Amino acid sequence: MATLELGDARLPPAWIEMGSMKYPLGTDDQGRDILSALIYGARISLIVGFASVLLSVVVGVAFGLLAGFRGGWIDAVLMRLCDVMLSFPAILVALLIAGVGRALFPNAHESLAFGVLILSISLTGWVQYARTVRGSTLVERNKEYVQAARVTGVSSLRIMRKHVLPNVMGPVMVLATIQVATAIITEATLSFLGVGAPPTSPSLGTLIRIGNDYLFSGEWWITVFPGAMLVLIALSVNLLGDWLRDALNPRLR
C-alpha cells in the first residue's frame, strides 16, 4: 500500500471541511488512505483469526477424541492439562508467547511474526474444543455402531476417524465459527498492545493504537473507523455462528 504525500497526512473524511473525495474516510498520521488500510487490515485480521481457529480445532479435536475414546490415564492427563490452561487468562498467555517470540526473533520475517501470533492465540483456544469433543465422544463410544465395529475387528484409530469423529463435529463447527470472532478480537488486542502484527502491517489493532494518539486532538477518524470495522467483523461472524447453530440443530428443522 503506497504512502501518500506528507501534505495528505491526517486528512479528515470527505464529508468534513478540508476533506477530499480522493480519500473518502480520510488519511492516517502517515498519509495512508484509511479505506485502503481498513480493507488490508481486515484481511490480516481474518487470516489470523481463521488460521488460529483452524489450528485450535485440529489440536483440540485430536486431544478430545483421544481422551474421550481411550479414557483412563490418557483422559486424566489431558483433562488436567486443560485445567491448567484454563487457569491462565487467555490474553496473558498470548502476550507471553508473542513477547517471547519477538524477543527470540527480533529481525524475523513478517510471515514468522504472523506464525508466532497465530500460535499464541491457538495455545489457549484448543481447550474448549477438546472438552466439547471429549464429552460427545464419551456418549458416542458406548453406542451400538461403535460396539459393532469393535466386534468386527475394526481398529480403534479407524473407529475414531471414520465413525466417532463425523458424529462429534457438529458442535465443533458451531463453536469454531463463533471463536473466529474471539480470535480476531484477541489479535486486535495484541496488535493494540504492540506485540501482535508487525508494525509495517496495518492490522485493525495497529490502526486503532496509532489513532489513539490522535483521538483527543480532533483526528477521531483514525481510531473510530478501524474500531467500527472490528465491531462489524466480529458481529458478522457471531451472526454466522448463530445461524449455523440453528441450521445444525435438528430440533429446529
UniProtKB/TrEMBL annotation:
Entry keyword Cell membrane: yes
Domain ABC transmembrane type-1 stretches: 42-241
Record-annotated membrane-spanning stretches: 44-69, 81-105, 111-129, 164-185, 220-244
PROSITE patterns noted in UniProt: ABC_TM1
Keywords, sorted A to Z: Cell membrane, Membrane, Transmembrane, Transmembrane helix, Transport
Protein origin, superkingdom: Bacteria
GO biological process, one term: transmembrane transport
GO cellular component, one term: plasma membrane
Localization of this protein: Cell membrane
InterPro entries referenced in this protein's UniProt entry, alphabetically: BP-dependent_transpt_permease, MetI-like, MetI-like_sf
Family note: Belongs to the binding-protein-dependent transport system permease family.
Protein known as: Peptide/nickel transport system permease protein
Protein species of origin: Acidovorax soli
